[in-house]
UniProtKB/TrEMBL annotation:
<dbReference type="InterPro" id="IPR052052">
    <property type="entry name" value="Polysaccharide_Lyase_9"/>
</dbReference>
<dbReference type="InterPro" id="IPR011050">
    <property type="entry name" value="Pectin_lyase_fold/virulence"/>
</dbReference>
<feature type="domain" description="Right handed beta helix">
    <location>
        <begin position="149"/>
        <end position="364"/>
    </location>
</feature>
<dbReference type="InterPro" id="IPR012334">
    <property type="entry name" value="Pectin_lyas_fold"/>
</dbReference>
<dbReference type="InterPro" id="IPR059226">
    <property type="entry name" value="Choice_anch_Q_dom"/>
</dbReference>
<dbReference type="Pfam" id="PF13229">
    <property type="entry name" value="Beta_helix"/>
</dbReference>
<keyword id="KW-0732">Signal</keyword>
<dbReference type="InterPro" id="IPR006626">
    <property type="entry name" value="PbH1"/>
</dbReference>
<feature type="signal peptide">
    <location>
        <begin position="1"/>
        <end position="29"/>
    </location>
</feature>
<protein>
    <recommendedName>
        <fullName>Right handed beta helix domain-containing protein</fullName>
    </recommendedName>
</protein>
<keyword id="KW-0964">Secreted</keyword>
<dbReference type="InterPro" id="IPR039448">
    <property type="entry name" value="Beta_helix"/>
</dbReference>
Length: 510
């Protein structure tokens, strides 16, 4: 739905360090495996060892060499971290990590925000790992600046952001009338802002992002010239705009040919309580915020995620006229009780772009459209072309709407082998296709030609009161799906083999 807008420097020589620190220089890092230590009780005049640690993260970042690890002791660090040095393929990454089970906290309280700036900020960096930090309280009340928890930008490669807890990153500026730009923040942001050099081979795994005040921006975003990324096993919740966003066509890359995030995997994430309802950058009570959103990205897979209690479960769309989100596969996800709809695709009005050549397969959608506004479990918007919608379970909310497609610009889309159910039963269930409403499953099938092999039946979930949408042994979804191995993938929501024998279930659970 509507979404507005969205430094490699060499270290000082040992002699120079000795001069600047009054002859208290650290020992030079060994090429591989050197270990440095930072502690709130340390001193940058120390040797950087466990017994004689440094005090500031920045000092460590300015000295660490490829293959070295900076271990950060528990405590609060009210400071920024600018990473401008790189590891290497030969010697290994430069790693910044918590020490043992201790929790180092990078706290932005009182720190200024300059432009678009991360409290942890990586520019043109390669072979860097950031692991095990709590990053918090980086905030502003000013328009035109953007605080970010972890910000990766320029070009770069082989970057890992893992097991970090990012929260209370906020922009609380008051929107200026109808001008909603400039009130933005991100939890984690990756912006590929060069071309042809991309940011590539980036892994964002096992992080938690919450209590973010984002304005018109996103909790976790890859935008522009970003190629080959893994966003896996993160927990993202209780934020006032989009959970995960994969963006193209916003001009982040200086060359339009490279201005799409692509070749990504979004897997195993849990996204919940994402809503723009109280976000002053949107209308009061709005339902704009998706759990997972692809806006102009391409060639990516979204699988084995849980997306619930958001405004939209998953959206694959394009906000830019004449531009497409393309070749996205959405499969084996559990998507339930989202406010507007479960899965949305296509432009949100006739001034937007399209969704083409995408696959929506083997998802379980349960009582989305929880506001009862009639957007259904699958919301097919403007300009959809050559998409495949198969093997999905769709259980309607109180609206009894399964699919809602109010636009006639809808060509080459295949809808089949799905299982539908609605509180009002088969005769009262509703589908709108190419702006024509059909009440009753038989009428819908005969008039549209869709869903020749689909069924209308209670899917018999294990325990809906506990949000357990695995299938009972007697479920009619078992072995009733299409075995189109080119699109269904190898595994179900739990990592079990998708094809067992010659049969495939409908829905996320095999």
């Amino acid at each position: 739905m509507l979404k507005f807008g969205k430094r490699i420097i060499m270290g000082l020589s040992i002699a120079a360090l000795a001069f600047s620190l009054g002859n208290a220089a650290p020992s030079k890092a060994a090429a591989d495996g050197a270990e440095y230590y930072v502690s709130p009780s340390g001193s940058d005049a120390n040797a950087g060892t466990l017994s004689s640690p440094w005090k500031t993260l920045q000092h460590a970042a300015d000295v660490a060499e490829p293959g070295s690890t900076v271990y950060v002791r528990g405590g609060v660090y009210n400071q920024k971290l600018k990473i401008t040095r790189s590891g290497s393929a030969e010697q290994g990454a430069i790693t910044f990590s918590n020490y043992a089970s201790e929790v180092p906290i990078i706290d932005g309280t009182g720190l200024s925000v300059s432009g678009k700036e991360g409290i942890v900020d990586l520019t043109d960096a390669n072979y860097i790992t950031i692991n095990g930090f709590e990053i918090r309280n980086y905030a502003t009340a000013k328009n035109g600046v953007m605080p970010v928890g972890i910000y990766v930008h320029g070009s770069g490669s082989y970057i890992t952001l893992s097991n970090n807890k990012v929260h209370d990153i906020k922009n609380t500026a008051t929107p200026k009338g109808e001008d909603l730009e400039g009130r933005d923040a991100h939890g984690i942001a990756v912006y590929g802002t060069k071309a042809p050099d991309s940011i590539h081979n980036i892994t964002i795994d096992g992080n938690e992002l919450y209590d973010l005040v984002l304005g018109s921006s996103e909790s976790l975003v890859v935008n522009g010239n970003v190629d080959t990324f893994h966003i896996t096993n993160n927990v993202i919740h209780d934020n006032d705009n989009i959970g995960i966003d994969v963006i193209g066509f916003e001009g982040k890359s200086p060359n339009a040919a490279y201005d799409q995030a692509r070749n990504g995997l979004i897997k195993g994430n849990r996204i919940y309580n994402i809503t723009s309802a109280d976000n002053p950058s949107y209308e009061k009570g709005s339902t704009e915020a998706g759990g997972i959103y692809v806006d102009g990205g391409k060639d990516s897979i979204i699988e084995q995620n849980y997306s619930y209690n958001n405004d939209i479960g998953v959206e694959i769309a394009s906000e830019h006229a004449g531009r497409s989100t393309s070749n996205i596969t959405v499969r084996s996800n559990m998507i339930y009780q989202n406010r507007l709809t479960g899965i949305a695709m296509g432009g949100y009005d006739t001034e937007r772009g399209s969704t083409k050549n995408c696959n929506i397969v083997n998802n379980t959608l349960y009582k989305n459209d929880s506001l009862g506004e009639g957007n259904g479990q699958l919301y097919v918007q403007y300009d959809t072309e050559n998409n495949v919608i198969k093997n999905n379970i769709m259980v309607a909310s109180s609206s009894d709407v399964l699919i809602y497609n109010e636009y006639t610009k809808n060509t080459g889309n295949i809808v089949d082998y799905n299982l539908y159910f609605a509180p009002g039963g088969s005769s009262d269930a509703s589908w709108t296709w190419k702006n024509k409403e059909y009440t009753g499953f038989s009428a819908y099938k005969s008039k549209t030609g869709n869903d020749a092999h689909s069924i209308f039946a209670d899917p018999k979930f294990l325990n809906v009161s506990n949000n357990d949408f695995h299938l009972q042994p007697t479920s009619p979804a078992i072995d009733a799906g299409s075995t189109d191995t080119a699109i269904i993938g190898e595994y179900d929501i739990d990592g079990q083999a998708r094809v067992q024998g010659s049969a495939v279930n409908i829905g996320a659970d095999e």
